[in-house]
Design goal:
The protein is of the alpha+beta class. The chain folds into 2 domains: 30 residues; 159 residues, no CATH class. A 5-stranded antiparallel β-sheet has the order 4-3-2-1-5. The radius of gyration is 31 Å and the shape is elongated.
Amino acid sequence: MKVRVPTVTFDAPRSFPPRGLRHAARAFSLLEMLLTLVIVLILVSIMFSRSSKTFQRDQKEACRHQLETLSVSLQIYANDHEGGFPVQKDALTSEPALALLMPRYLSTTQPFVCPGTKRDSLAEGAALHREAISYAYYMGRRLDAPQLPLASDAQVDASEKIIGDKVFSPDGKGPGSNHHQFGGNVLFVDGHAQELGTNTSIALPLGPGVRLLNPKQ
């Protein structure tokens, strides 16, 4: 008579890393995750900071719409004043001249501050000539010059510009830096607005009786 002897097998003992190594691995993974999160946050903040090209591209679009809003009010004013846009003879900056639009031709101060700047919005009902706005104004312009500039983002100076001249800040500092070093917008008498780089690709003349008034700094 044969007796079957049962076969007994033994699993090899499992190998576990020392407790200290397990803690170190978990800590290292957590550190990696935190570092990755910090890097992502830094990149996002750079991309969407006010001085970034991406942010200013969007803000120039919003700025263009604001200039077009101002254009409507300026057109109505000129139609009521024999084709002439607002003139304040003793004005040294754009605020006193454009203040003539308020409140009859424009009831809100919102369009006067470019969204690309660090300036706060103006309080509604504020006396515009006492405030600082964002836009330059070609005072003395008339409706019969539809292709000439009427207003713009603040410029580097108050001179007329020929093709190639610097019109906006090249480094994001000083006058002409509404959109840091990324150019700006120009509004024309016919109501259209055009984006320009630091150096203008078109002539921006003054003409007889026309002065370019920059806003207060």
